[in-house]
Amino acid sequence: MRSDFSLETRRLILRPYRMEDVPDAHAIFSDPVVMACCEAPYTLKQTEEQVAFFRRSGIALAARHRQQGRMISHLLFKQMPGEAQGIYEIGWIFHRGCWRQGYAYEAANALIEHGFAELHLHKICAETISPVSVHLMRKLGMEIEGVFRQHAKNPQGQWADVTWAGMLNPLHHNQTTGGTYE
Question: What is the pTM of this model?
């Protein structure tokens, strides 16, 4: 992502990470409940390293709450490595205090619309071990493409199913004819 990139929604500003995001990012990444379906909670040093990496790589965005002025989410949005150009992965991790308020849908939907309309992406994919994220994937219009049974370990070391979902660019794809392009 360009350093000047931003998307605005009704309640959020999605933009590249800044080092000033470290305290808010750490509140998200250090929470064991938030990270239960991702990886082990981060130390402050790990958070600092991750924010620096996100700034260099441009593979993720910070979502700032317009009224509160603080970062409330990490949003992954990147070209899938090893895949054809135009196949992106999307992901989200929100501060626990922002769960069940529609922020994840609002942010992910804005990124999906931007990806299809402005970046002319072919497909956007997501994967998760979280049943809550599977629900959000469906709400966003993604189709479940597969469930890899007992395919990954959660941070607690237990085996978990990985659900893979995706959606094709509706501006270029006729989904009612089984994948035929117009």
Answer: 0.88
Cα gap 41→33, rounded to integer Å? 9
Go through the domains of the chain in sequence order and give each one's CATH number. 7-181 (3.40.630.30)
**What is the distance between the alpha carbons of residues 31 and 69, in angstroms, rounded to a whole number?**
20
**What is d(CA 139, CA 29) in angstroms, rounded to the nearest whole number?**
25
> How many other C-beta atoms lie within 10 A of the C-beta of residue 151?
15
Can you read off the two tokens belonging to residue 2? 């360009």
Q: Which residues pair with 13 in a beta bridge?
A: 8, 64
**Residues 1, 57: Cα–Cα separation, whole Å:** 8
Instruction: Output the CA torsion sign for 126, 10, 118, 24.
Output: negative
Beta bridge partners of 89: 78, 125
Question: What is the tens place of the pLDDT at every residue in 75-131?
Answer: 999 999 989 899 999 999 999 999 999 999 999 999 999 999 999 999 999 999 888
